[in-house]
Design brief:
33% of the residues lie in helices and 24% in strands. The protein is α+β, with helices and mostly antiparallel strands and 489 residues long. It folds into two domains: 273 residues, no CATH class; 183 residues, Gamma-glutamyltranspeptidase, small (S) subunit (Glutamine Phosphoribosylpyrophosphate, subunit 1, domain 1, 4-Layer Sandwich). Helix 4 packs antiparallel against helix 8.
Length: 489
């Protein structure tokens, strides 16, 4: 039976449910994506926040494409590093530790509040009150900590314990929340209702803006009232490339990920990668060659990039009318700072060590920050066939490229394409999940170290897909590496 309303793939059951609720209430894919985004700020609070930024790639049933850039912006003035609150910290990612900085001076101007209201004005169909209701309800009732949430909080524990106002939200008895415990965010619920009444002006020019700027002025931050008042959502034409009779719409410059995905697909097609059985030493060698070509392209053509282990989540939606939304948001690696009296956790994009090529705390003033986030939509004969995106920072580009090849080139089902083992090459290291080689097969890559992981891991991304087949049937695929969920009604 063909779904009556649509399909959504997301990173948490409550996130997906909020989107489905909007579709069942008569809303469109864009209402669903916005409601799901707001719920993710509660249910996936270690990965994303109203105090972060993101991108939403949209394609309407009328055939109109638009990429909404509501990513973070650098402040208009950079203070001396010796005069600001800029602290060393680490994300402990299994056997790997990612160096970064947190504190108030790590916070860039957030874009999520502006993105919410701007996209709603342009494409929404339901009242804002209905769109925020699921997030308000969940924030007050509390979200139960899942295994993936427990892990995500644990790797940030040293940051989340630094400030009492942050620790109250994410911790209990001196440690991060554990499986089965409940996280309550009543103040955030109040803030959402306040925003619903006054709009994004409250955040960028009103009472929240005043408190935000005063806090930074008094305690070593960089964000001013002027920074907040001048923030704008940017509407961009999606970057477009052709791949095997399909049209890929993805994130254009100044963000880097979309360009790299397009280049990777071109290289994969030139090498006829999709015409091979997707496993074995020869396949892995050629896949590594494609990924290496992407990395060379990045170094030769792109001047800023995000290669940290940043906290990111994605959701994909297609509704029955043919509207499609691909939405990725992030908080970075966590600043450990709250925006006063809001329970909004602020990003640490200015503290990501690999984000700015000129060095630590050398960001250009008043500039949109670049990103690897690449929410994408694949068209076939003018209609959305694949809505896709991923978390995973530097692995975003390779995760999306490999899943698209699996879907289109290999003819896999959506879930098979997402589940298939992945590889990533960076810094002369090829990382590969189990299952890419035949049993007992030896493998080496000249000029690179090779690391075979013992099991699939969130390191390789969290790729969530909404899919429409040739008969108009809607379905989806969620990435088990990041506890993804698909709901179709």
């Amino acid at each position: 039976m063909n779904p009556k309303y649509g399909t959504i793939a997301a990173g948490h059951p409550t996130t997906a449910q909020a989107g489905i609720d909007m579709l069942e209430a008569g809303g469109n894919a864009f209402d669903a994506a916005l409601a799901a985004m707001l719920v993710s700020f509660v249910s996936e609070a270690s990965l994303t926040s109203m105090g972060g930024g993101g991108f939403m790639n949209t394609y309407t049933a009328a055939g109109e494409a638009c990429l909404f850039d509501f990513f973070v912006q650098t402040p208009r003035k950079r203070q001396k590093m010796s005069e600001v609150d800029f602290r060393d910290s680490y994300i402990h990612f299994g056997a790997v530790s990612q160096h970064q900085y947190n504190g108030k001076a790590s916070v860039a101007v957030p874009g999520c509040p502006a993105g919410l209201f701007h996209i709603h004005r342009r494409l929404g169909s339901l009242p804002m009150k209905e769109i925020i209701r699921p997030a308000v309800k969940l924030a007050r009732e509390g979200v139960i900590i899942t295994p993936y949430q427990e892990y995500s909080l644990k790797i940030l524990e040293s940051i989340l314990l630094q400030k009492p106002e942050v620790a109250r939200r994410y911790t209990k008895d001196g440690r991060t929340l554990r499986l089965g415990e409940r996280m309550f965010l009543p103040l955030f619920a109040d803030t959402l209702e306040w925003l619903e009444e006054e709009g994004s002006e409250l955040f960028y020019k009103g009472e929240i803006a005043r408190k935000f700027a005063e806090d930074h002025a008094q305690h070593g931050g960089s964000i001013s009232l002027e920074d907040l008042a001048h923030y704008e959502v940017i509407e961009r034409k999606p970057l477009q490339t052709d791949y095997r009779e399909h049209v890929i719409l993805t994130n254009p410059p100044p963000s880097a990920g979309g360009s790299l995905i397009c280049h990777g697909l071109e290289q994969a097609e030139a090498m006829q990668l999709s015409r091979q059985q997707p496993m074995g030493g020869n396949y892995l060698t050629e896949l590594a060659s494609v990924i290496q070509a992407m990395d060379s392209y990045r170094r030769d053509h792109l001047t800023s990039y995000l290669d940290a282990l940043g906290n990111t989540t994605h959701l994909s939606v297609i509704d029955r009318k043919g509207n499609a939304a691909s939405l990725t948001t992030t908080i970075g690696g966590s600043s450990g700072e709250m925006i006063p009296d809001t329970d909004i956790h602020a990003n640490n994009m200015l503290g990501e060590t690999d984000l700015f090529p000129k060095g630590v705390y050398q960001w250009p003033e008043n500039r949109r920050v670049s990103s690897m986030m690449s929410p994408s939509i694949v068209l076939y004969q003018g209609k959305p066939k694949i809505v896709i995106g991923s978390g995973g920072s530097a692995r975003i580009r390779t995760a999306i490229m490999q899943v698209v090849i699996n879907l289109i080139g290999q003819g896999m089902s959506p879930q098979e394409a997402v589940d298939h083992p992945r590889a990533h090459w960076e810094g002369h290291l090829l990382s590969a999940e189990p299952g890419l080689l035949y049993e007992g097969e030896a493998f080496s890559l000249p000029g690179s170290r090779v690391q075979f992981w013992e099991e699939k891991n969130m390191f390789f991304g969290g790729t969530h897909v909404a899919y429409q087949d040739a008969n108009g049937m809607l379905m989806g695929a969620a990435d088990r590496r990041r506890a993804g969920v698909v709901m179709t009604r």
